[in-house]
Protein 1
Amino acid sequence: MGADVAVGGASNSSVPIRRSPTYYEIPAPPELDWRPYRSPFYAEYRREWDRRGSEGDPGEAPLHLDLDLTSRCNLRCLMCPRTWFLERGETSWAPGGPGDMDPGLFRETASEGARLGARSVKMNFLGEPLLHPHVVELVAYAASLGLWVMMNTNAVLLSPALSRDLLEAGLTDVFFSFDSPYREEYERIRRGASYDRTLSNIRAFMEAKEALGLRYVQTRASMVLPEDPAGRGRAEVDYVRLFRDLGVAEVGFGLPTVMGRDYAPLNGGLDFVCPDLFRRVFVFHDGVAGPCCGDWERRLVVGDARKSSVSEIWKSPAYERLRSRHLAGAFAEVPACLCCSVPYLSTAGGDGGGSRGGAGRHAAGRRP
Ligand code: SF4
Ligand code: SF4
């Protein structure tokens, strides 16, 4: 965790800035803080999230599910790993081509996860969740299970009617991926998106949230900072101002990720245990399951939700072996982990916010 300072003078002094070498977040000012409106179980869930990561305790089941509603996307953002892979004809992240998760698979996985003790679900991983034709119905289903329902979105398809439907369905945490406070820069990076239309969608979402009185709904906007450090300070201030004016609670900034960089030489000899192995499971749209958002190449498959239960995946020999190697101080013996940015970035002075492509993709750090 970093120092409690603010960009643009807007900060909640009771909540420290989340900071890692590649990402940091300005917390909500008191008038936009959503935490006081959550049930006490939320604080307990966050404590358990931290405890599992720091103690290397997987418990009996995942605390959080990442269920990829779709691996399709309506944009081709410059800094996104998805774009990077597509442009190289690399398809290991979606072997049969990008597609949507079967609603039945989503329901079964979410319902078993909730029954076992999961507290939250994120509705995306490799694509834009609003493209899924049943997104509202699936949000409602997950909310009916008592899960906190989270989503990253580029907000391009977030019409006023859809905003209202999602909020009424029970969406609790929305993370807008919106790069740059400046029209020209935004449209250069977010290829295929209109600055004015997307901003108007976010405004309508915030108005719907206000009209419905949903103070517990968390909102965050995040951007990848310009590659030239000289332009960052002004962009940060303008970005915070833009989203605070819209009533968005939190604002996050990621450094540009260098796709294709080999972290193996930097990771050698580090003392590192990946915290995600003890709290979450990622299910690709086709049911294949992995331990983290960094493994686009599917080298760390730990199961398949079409063939195995959540419990079986969580306790699978593949997942147990991966945890054991990390706990034994041998993460570097796992080729995918040896090449990953997370060990280096999270032991080089940060708190683990540098997922491989995390800053580039959605600038959302590694918190769900
Ligand atoms: S950053 Fe998000 S919106 Fe942009 S191409 Fe990647 S997945 Fe799609
Ligand atoms: S690839 Fe990276 S994020 Fe994934 S388990 Fe290994 S170290 Fe953790």
Protein 2
Amino acid sequence: MSDRINETNQTIECPECGHHLHVSLDCSNGDQDFFEECPNCCHEFHINLHLDEEHRKLVIKVNSDNEQYY
Ligand SMILES: [Zn+2]
């Protein structure tokens, strides 16, 4: 089915050092949470993947481990 998003390659930015890294995302299971480690600064950060069915687009949120709350 070509009208559905299944696997996609995305470029995300490390919240620590701004290094760009490419991730291959499998969207067939809907929303996902996973951790990715930056190859540049070895910082681990949290990626939240949300598939917006209505607008057919991916929403990717990148959160650093040590989130700061004010
Ligand atoms: Zn980094």
